[in-house]
Structure formats: structure tokens, C-alpha cells
Amino acid sequence: MASFEVIGGQPLKGEIIPQGAKNEALQILCAVLLTAEPVTISNIPDIRDVNKLIELLRDMGVKVGKIGVDTYVFQADDVHLDYLDTEAFVTQGRALRGSVMILGPMLARFGKCQLPRPGGDKIGRRPLDTHFVGLEKLGGKLTLEGNDFYRISTDGKLKGTYMLLDEASVTGTANLVMAAVLAEGTTTIYNAACEPYLQQLCKMLVRMGAKINGIGSNLLTIEGVESLGGTEHRMLPDMIEIGSFIGLAAMTGSEITIKNCQIAELGLIPDTFRKLGIQLEFRDDDIHIPAQEHYEINTYLDGSILTISDHTWPGLTPDLLSIILVVATQAKGTVLIHQKMFESRLFFVDKLIDMGAQIILCDPHRATVIGLDKRTRLHGISMTSPDIRAGVALLIAALSAEGRSVIDNVEQIDRGYQNIDKRLTALGAQLRRL
């Protein structure tokens, strides 16, 4: 188990480039299974979860060629279906949440797929019903073996249909879109997720020959085609990294410029940080955060306490609430953080309380943060990263704190953030991997 040793309390300075978007990468990589022709993908982040998915695709028979620092060519012209019956596949599938998105492409193109219950962060219930109910409506036949192994197949081609999703699941929508593009007839998906990453997937599929209308809305209409061709695709920068770096700058009183942010795709993220009193300057497509000694949380017009909550797009992504909560601990004022989607994501606040933060954990979904206004600094402690986002939130807290912190289980952070220790050290952070 690797650890980070952090000596906090030092302001940082410089420029940083966000990695490619992890959540987009997991969808886009699974889509290469839809065609036998080459697909070139660039701006792929070099992180553990993405690398594990690339390894899984390679072991399934997909030809993988690295042609640049962040660019790969994939060709799924000889997929080994028998590999799905091996113990190695079961082990890989269990270790990676994103493996669930091979179901749609494999069922559409090859008529069958199977998968153990995928792994991922332990942040609460993450049911797969949206995926399987939708695939069954398209004609898939699902068999459950034991409590956690799924087989799905179809007699002939999938058939287009109308479906109203029970939740606007991003991965569920991605799976169903990838299945529907090769189905016979027309598929209508209502209450579809419409995050920028899902839009990116749809635009890539259209370039491959798919027919998709309503991209960017929650109503997608897909006319199935016989086959798809190859294409080239460049992924967006990771909006969660961008938000993390904004929070890092505010907490440490640093002057940081985040380069090439694709600001138009960030939704409510910049304005949410502004509600915490953080100054942001847009310079073309860069975000500049000037050094701030203090920042003050807004209130509502009637003076009542601000609530920041997550929601499906275009609401605020739940992946940033851990960062926002940490940033609020050193603001002036009080804010209620309401994590609606996952019931275990706020359980890391006990570490922040141990560091000196004033937080009331109201219940598994809500925490009230009373900001210290930097009058009292957090102090370093030893702690463990529970998941990707909480791990980075704790890292930001440690970089702002007085003294030495040690964060264990940083493999969790590595799953979502590319070379984070080296990139922050380049900004002046006193951070080393143990």
C-alpha cells in the first residue's frame, strides 16, 4: 500500500493542465467494440482505472497500439468471445466499475455478453437495474447466476423500442445507446443522461455512422444501422480535476492557472466555486485563480444559509461535493452540503474533524460546514483515502494544513488522477510518495 507524505501550509504557484476525462474515457473505450475498423482516441488519461480497462480490451482480443503520449489506436476485428468464460476475465471485471459498459456493445455486435458484478468505489448503493432493464427491452435475455454473475444474450438482432429510464444514469444511458445504434428499427430513450461525456460518446458514434438525434437533451432517438466504421476522437479535459485544482488554489492561498479547460462544458462548476467566494478569471480557455487570503460563502437573498447539492446534469456533479466540502472548511461563513446520490460519500468528514474542521454530519447525506476563515489552520494527521474523490479532498486539506500529514491507500487516488504527486510538486507542493 502506497502513501503520501505531505508537509502543508505552503502556497503553490504555476500552471497545470488537466488530464483527459476519466468518466468519458470509460465510455469511449468500450465503444471501440462496436466496429471491426480502427478507432483512434487521444487525450486518454494515464490512470489506473483507464489502464485496467485498456488491459481488459487487449485480453479480449482488441488490438491496441500506442502511437503517442496519450493517443491509442484500437481495432476490435478479432474479439475472443471465449475469454469471457475465463477466471482472468472474472477477476478483471470485478475490479473495475467501468467494465459494465462492455455489455451494450458486445450484446449489439455479438449477441451475447457476461459479466461479474463490477467493482469500484464503496460510496453507497450503485444498482445496475437501469442497464439490464433497458437491455432487456431491446431484446436481451438476462440470466443471473448466484448473486453476482450476469449473462445476457439475444436471439438474432436487438430490436429498437421506447424506454423511459427510472434514473438518468450516465453509464446506463451509455450502455443503452451503444446497444441501440446497431439494433433494428428506432429506439427512443427518455430521461437519458445528457452529461458532456455522454454527448461526446454520441458524437463519436455519429462519426462512426450511427444515427442519433437529441444529443445534449434527455430525449434521444436512435435509428439503428447495420454496422459502424472507424473514427478519430479526442476526449474532453476532466471537469473533476479542474474543480479539484480550483479548490486546491483557494485552500492553499495559491495563484494557479488551469490550462485548456473547455470552459463551455463545465456547467455550474465555476459558479458553484464563486458561491464559496472564490475568485475565478477566464482567460480565453484557461481559468486563472488569483491568490486569496480569505473567501466568504454567499448566502441566499433573504440571508439564509447556502445549500450546495448534487444533481444530474446540468446540475452539479456529485464527484465534486467532497472537494467543495473541504474548501468550505476554510471559508468565512456556513454552508450545508447535501449529497443526494450516494449515502456513503460524506463519511470521510471524521478525518477533517480530526484535523480541526468544524463540521456537523447531520446524516449520511448532509453535512453542515462552519468555515474557519483561515483564522485557525487545519493540522496534519495520519489518515486513509476511502475513495478517489474523498482521497483528493483529503490531499487538498493536507496541503493547506499546518505540519505533516500521511495519507495511506493512495492507490485509490491513482485510479482517478494522473501522476498527481508529480504534477503538484511541480507547483511547489511538499509532497512525496512513500
UniProtKB/TrEMBL annotation:
Domain Enolpyruvate transferase: 8-422
Superkingdom in the source lineage: Bacteria
Gene3D superfamilies on file: Enolpyruvate transferase domain
Sites where the protein binds phosphoenolpyruvate: 22-23
Active-site residues, Swiss-Prot/TrEMBL: 121 (proton donor)
Molecular function GO labels: UDP-N-acetylglucosamine 1-carboxyvinyltransferase activity
Localization, UniProt: Cytoplasm
Reactions catalysed: phosphoenolpyruvate + UDP-N-acetyl-alpha-D-glucosamine = UDP-N-acetyl-3-O-(1-carboxyvinyl)-alpha-D-glucosamine + phosphate
Key word Cell wall biogenesis/degradation present: yes
Enzyme nomenclature, EC number: 2.5.1.7
Pathway: Cell wall biogenesis; peptidoglycan biosynthesis
GO CC annotation terms, alphabetical: cytoplasm
Function summary: Cell wall formation. Adds enolpyruvyl to UDP-N-acetylglucosamine.
UniProt record similarity statement: Belongs to the EPSP synthase family. MurA subfamily.
Record protein name field: UDP-N-acetylglucosamine 1-carboxyvinyltransferase
Originating species: Hymenobacter aerilatus
Gene name for this UniProt entry: murA
